[in-house]
Specification:
The structure holds two protein chains of two kinds. Chain A has eleven helices and no strands. Chain A is an all-alpha fold. In chain A, helix 7 runs antiparallel to helix 9. Chain A starts with a helix and ends in an 18-residue tail after the last helix. Chain B has two domains: about 140 residues, Fumarate Reductase Iron-sulfur Protein, Chain B, domain 2, CATH 1.10.1060; about 260 residues, no CATH class. Chain B contains 22 helices and seven strands. In chain B, the strands form two sheets. Chain B has a four-stranded parallel sheet with strand order 2-1-3-4. In chain B, strands 5-6-7 form a three-stranded parallel sheet, sandwiched between helices. The termini of chain B are far apart. The chains are: A mainly alpha, B mainly alpha. At the A-B interface, helix 1, helix 3, helix 6, helix 7 and helix 11 of A face helix 3, helix 5, helix 7, helix 9 and helix 15 of B.
């Protein structure tokens, strides 16, 4: 029971830090003025065009694809794998489980491999490519290590030593409804959950901010229409 | 050519070079004198509490710029940009990789303004702003031509130009400015152009130019200055008044206006399109320099403002003027404000208003260099990418032999000439020569495959830079040509105007 309480408290804390941290950053990004128009051109001339440009950036990583096929392959594998894995995890949070989450289960199951493979590829480049070795600081390595550990501990539970997911689900649902239930104390699960807590806490104070940040990048989200519509903001709005 | 500076060898199949640390650590431009500094409102020399001042300024800049806020937070060090900078490709110095250049500022920002950097500096690579870092800033923020090539490839659109502009502004504020940019800006403020060419000299030069055109063509083509109530105010880089090959471009503009019957004028008060304030990230100077143009347009009572061939000036004009010195409600709403000279010429060609003889350019086998600020920081025409199409269509309307360079080196992928962003100074010659490598390699390919003998550019800095570095790579210096020179050569002038 002690373990259950500790993990529950940590999860509540981590969720609070994660949410407040991300919301705070989003508020800062939205409130910080961008005084001049600086879209990287050719840029869309309409708002709809900008939505399309950003959609391509966050779904198929268009700029990265132009830049480097290796980074793109590993990065895309990781992110798509992660997305499927996260969606698959929704089954622990919904009762009854949404039909499309059920439908996704087999894909989500194997997406874990894509995710870890992508991460290993990205990590290998940090050692093998001299340019990327040069720009990597300890935190860049540790971040990948953390994600790989989360992914692998998850894969271990899926394919090697199963955990009691019925009990796990009642723990999760119990947390959602403030009615604590016992957390199954399998080692792999405890490692997995502890690392996820770490990830949630560091998310808003690390480079993981690229997730909300990409939507606020002025070179990508500005409309190229400054001759038609006068743009002023921040210092440029002052006479 | 400086004897001690050598161009790196051209490679037939360019590959990504390995890093060699500190090859360019000694590259530093001359520092601004106290007089240069003070004329722009900066301290004359290094202030006593420079660390505090710099850190405070950094905080102010970040909280006033969403770009900086996002760019400093979001980089994941993926490495996509590491082989995209021409200075890295030409020097192999790892600090010339865009991400490493950004990190010079990011590591200081992290130290003073982020939780991780304050409490775990080693873990995230955060450092104090000390003398060593200050020196690195001075060296490597003056090895960025702010060409934005890295921002095309970054998955978050991080633009190193914004970082190096901020870095230079901070250096200016603590009293460590760069001579080339700051001296030139002083001249613009006092005299009205980068060259410090006063009104009588300008008038004299332009009269001489009219005589030259008359001698060449037998036609009275005017190059007017300060003519009230002309339709068009032409704002062009002052290099167009005297430098080769720029001046032939100016003759071309004059012939276009003459042939189209458009009344136009230059202004002796606002005789400069360039605005180096952008290079040093100074918003106050940016606005002050631009304001001369609004004032001149109102004073002369013109209906349109047209900008000559200049890369960063077109960025400032296209993207910043309406913000800084607009609204342009006093101009004729039927025309974009401002308009690029290429847009004017292209429209006239489309309407059949120019009689062009392509054969006049038959001795030229032409390729076109997309200037970075036109390609990646502005637009021409009414559709995205018009900045690539319009100059090429003009060339094709004026000449029979046109060959583009390799696709990965043109349009938004274009390589900087190596001299942009306030680096066009002799004290940075080694950097300029090496930075030109990727462009020279692409040029060598079309010279070899298509016998290209003419390199056309629409930027005053590109033209000067190429005139200087082409010989280092064993090309003829006079390959570099203004776009409107070939327009001017092709125009069959009407004598009835």
């Amino acid at each position: 029971m002690t373990l259950t309480v500790i993990f529950a408290i940590l999860f509540y804390l981590a969720t609070a830090l994660f949410s407040i941290g991300i919301i705070r950053k989003i508020v800062i990004y939205s409130k910080t003025p961008q005084p001049l128009k600086i879209p990287t051109t050719p840029a869309p001339t309409t708002k709809a065009g900008v939505v399309w440009r950003l959609t391509k950036e966050v779904t198929v990583f268009q700029s990265l694809f132009k830049a480097n096929k290796w980074i793109w392959v590993f990065g895309w594998l990781f992110h798509v794998g992660l997305l499927l894995v996260l969606l698959r995890h929704l089954r622990y949070f919904t009762e009854p489980v949404w039909f499309w989450v059920n439908w996704l289960q087999p894909f989500g199951k194997y997406a874990g491999f894509a995710m870890v493979a992508g991460l290993l590829g990205l990590w290998a480049r940090r050692f093998l490519v001299d340019r990327i070795r040069y720009i990597s600081s300890p935190s860049d390595h540790l971040m990948l290590l953390l994600l790989i550990a989360i992914g692998s501990s998850g894969l271990v539970m899926t394919f090697v030593s199963h955990t009691d997911i019925v009990a796990l689900k009642s723990f999760v649902m119990g947390m959602l409804y403030f009615d604590l239930q016992m957390l199954p104390s399998t080692v792999a699960l405890l490692i997995h959950l502890a690392l996820v807590i770490v990830l949630m806490v560091i998310f808003p104070i690390s480079k993981l901010l690229h997730a909300p940040g990409v939507f606020f990048s002025p070179t990508r989200n500005q409309v190229d229409d400054v001759r038609e519509h006068r743009h002023v903001s921040g210092w440029s709005a002052k006479p | 050519m400086a004897a001690d500076i050598q161009a790196p060898p051209l490679r037939e199949y360019p590959t990504i070079p390995v890093i060699v640390e500190n090859t360019m650590a000694d590259s530093k431009p001359y520092m601004a004198t106290p007089a240069h500094q003070e004329s722009l409102g900066y301290p004359g020399e290094l202030v006593d509490n420079w660390q505090d001042v710099a850190v405070k300024k950094l905080g102010e800049l970040v909280s006033g710029s969403r770009a900086l806020q996002v760019f400093l937070d979001t980089c994941v060090k993926c490495g996509a940009c590491t082989d995209k900078c021409h200075y890295y490709l030409g020097t192999q110095d790892p600090n010339n990789m865009p991400v490493a250049r950004q990190d010079l500022l990011r590591k200081v920002y992290r130290r003073y303004y982020t939780f991780a950097g304050k409490h775990f500096p080693k873990l995230v690579g955060a450092v104090d702003f000390d003398e060593e870092v200050r020196d690195q800033w001075y060296s490597y923020f003056h090895q960025c031509s702010q060409c934005r090539r890295c921002s095309v490839f970054c998955p978050y659109g991080i633009d190193t130009a914004e970082i190096s502009m901020a870095g230079r502004e901070i250096l200016d504020v603590i009293g460590v400015g760069q001579k080339y940019c700051n001296e030139i800006l002083g001249k613009v403020h006092v005299i009205g152009n980068n060259l410090g060419l006063p009104e009588p000299a300008l008038v004299n030069t332009l009269e001489g130019l009219e005589e030259d055109i008359k001698d060449d063509t037998g036609v009275d083509v005017r190059v007017p200055v300060d003519e009230k109530n002309a339709d068009v105010l032409l704002i062009t880089p002052s290099a167009d008044f005297f430098a080769e090959p720029h001046i032939d471009g100016l003759i071309g503009y004059a012939k276009v206006f003459h042939q189209a019957g458009i009344s136009w004028t230059l202004s002796s008060y606002a005789s400069e399109a360039a605005n180096f304030s952008m290079f040093i990230g100074s918003k106050d100077n940016l606005k002050k320099v631009a304001m001369r143009i609004r004032d001149a347009a109102l004073d002369l009572g013109v209906k349109r403002i047209v900008v000559g061939e200049c890369g960063h000036a077109w960025r400032v004009a296209y993207n910043f003027w309406n913000t800084l010195i607009g609204p342009f409600d006093f101009l004729d709403p039927r025309y974009p404000a401002p308009q690029h000279i290429c847009e004017v010429t292209y429209d006239l060609i489309q309407r059949g208003a120019l009689r062009l003889n392509k054969e006049a350019n038959d001795h030229r086998r032409i390729t076109f260099h997309d200037s970075c600020n036109v390609a990646r920081a502005s637009r021409m025409g009414n559709m995205p990418g018009g900045q690539f199409l319009i100059p090429r269509e003009i060339i094709k309307a004026c000449a029979n032999h046109f060959h583009d360079m390799s696709p990965e080196t043109i349009h938004e992928n274009t390589f900087c000439c190596g001299g942009g962003g306030g680096l066009l100074t002799d004290d940075l010659m080694k950097l300029r020569v090496r930075g030109a490598l990727p462009r020279m390699e692409a040029l060598a390919q079309v010279v070899q495959d298509n016998d290209v003998n003419t390199l056309i550019a629409i930027c005053a800095i590109c033209k000067t830079q190429f005139a200087k570095v082409l010989p280092y790579y064993k090309f003829q210096m006079d390959m570099i040509t203004s776009l409107h020179q070939i327009v001017g050569d092709a125009i069959e002038l009407d004598t009835t105007h």
